[in-house]
Amino acid sequence: MTTASDDLIQRDRASLWHPYSSTVNSPMVYPVISASGVRLKLADEREVIDGMASWWCAIHGYNNPQLNTALEEQLNDMAHVMFGGLTHRPAVELAEQLVELTPAGLNKVFISDSGSVSVEVALKMAIQYWAAKGRPEKQRMLSLRQAYHGDTLGAMAVCDPVTGMHTLFNQVLTPHFFADAPGIAFADEWREEDIQSLQDILTEHHQDTAALILEPIVQGAGGMRFYHSEYLREARRLCDKYEVLLIADEIATGFGRSGKLFACDHAGISPDIMCVGKALTGGYMSLAATLATDELSETISAGGEGVFMHGPTFMANPLACSVALASIKLLLESGWQTKVETIEKALHKGLAPCRELANVVDVRVLGAIGVVEIDKAVDMHIVPAEFVRRGVWVRPFGKLVYIMPPYIMDKTDLGTLCQAIFEVVKELD
Ligand SMILES: *Cc1c(COP(=O)(O)O)cnc(C)c1O
To answer: Which of 149, 232, 233, 341 gives a 20 to 30 Å CA spacing to 199?
Structure first.
C-alpha cells in the first residue's frame, strides 16, 4: 500500500527539480503538510524542530497570527498592482521603515523580488553611478573569496570562483577581482595583515573598480565564517580612499541574525548600497530591497539616461510589503535582541560538547547562528534522515552542519537540536 506521502514523493521525483540537486540520484525529500511555531509537520504525522528557519527567513517561526492577519487584510484590498506609475501604502511604509532601521545615509529604497535580484540591482547601481560621474571605465567589481551573493549570472560572478563553479560558466561570467577571504575570526585579535590582500587589489585596480561587495561579518553560504569587525571598518576606509563604492549584502545577516539588527552595526559603518532579503518578510514571501544613499540616487538621476535601468514585474508586491511591515513590527516589539542573546548562549553551551569529537574541526557561534565544521563532506543520502529520526530539521552542506533557528525557539527545543547535532556528528566519525 502506498501512503499519500509516498505518492507525493514519487510525483515530486517525476516532475520537480530541487535546489542544487540532481533529478536522477537525488536524496530523499520530506513532504510537509503544515508548520507552526518552530515545528514542521511531515506528511507521516511526525513533527520536527526546525533548525534552519527555512534558510534564515522564518525568524518568528511559522503560522504567526500577526503575519497571517497582515496578509489576509492586504488580500482584501489588493494582491498586486504594477509599480510603474502607481504606488501604495505598504510600499511607502516599508521604505520608510527600512530607511529608519538601516545604517545612516541609506535613504532610497529599490524593492525587488529576491535576494539575487537585489544584488543585480546593487551592481547595476554602482556601474550607473560611475557612468553618470563620467567614469564609465569603472565597471569591474571587487569581491571576497568564500563569498556568496546569489545564483543569477551577475550575482554568481561575484561569488567565490571555486565554490561558485565559475569554470563551468566561464564564457558568460564577467571576470571580477577577488581578495582573500578575511582570516581573523570575529572574537580574535585584529591584525592589519588581514586587510593586505584587499588593499593590494584596490591599489592596483581602483581605476577600473566600481564597487567592493561583501557580506558584512558573516560569510554565509560560502563557508559560514564570522570575521572581525575591524576588517569591515578598514574596508570602508579603503573604499573611501580609492573612490570605490561599498555594497553590503545583508540578505542573510539582516534583521538581527548576527546579534545586531544589521551586521554593519558591529562595525558602526554605513555602506553606499545595502541589500536585504530573506528574513525581510519573516519567511512568508519572496521580497528583497536594495538601499542607496541620496548621493548615489541623485547622481544616477542626473546622469546621461537619468533613470535607473531596472523594474521587476512584481516590484513592491503589496502582499509581500504588508507582511514585511508586520514582520518588522513584530521584530521590534518582540525584544529580539534578548531572544538572539539567549539563543547565542544556548548554542554555545549546547554545541560545546562537539568540540571533543575527533572529526570536528571547529565549533563557532555568533548571534543566532551555530556552526559545527567537520573534516569531510557529509553524505546527504544519509545525514538529513538521521536528523529527522531524532525529531529535528537540520540540512548540512559540505563539511558544515549549521543552524539558524527561529528567534522564538525555547531552551528545551534548542537543547534537543544541539543534542541531535552532537549525536549525528559523532556517528559520522
Ligand atoms: C540567500 C542569499 C542571496 C540570494 O538570495 P535569493 O533570495 O536566494 O536570491 C544573496 N546573498 C546572500 C548573502 C544570501 O545569503
So the answer is: 149
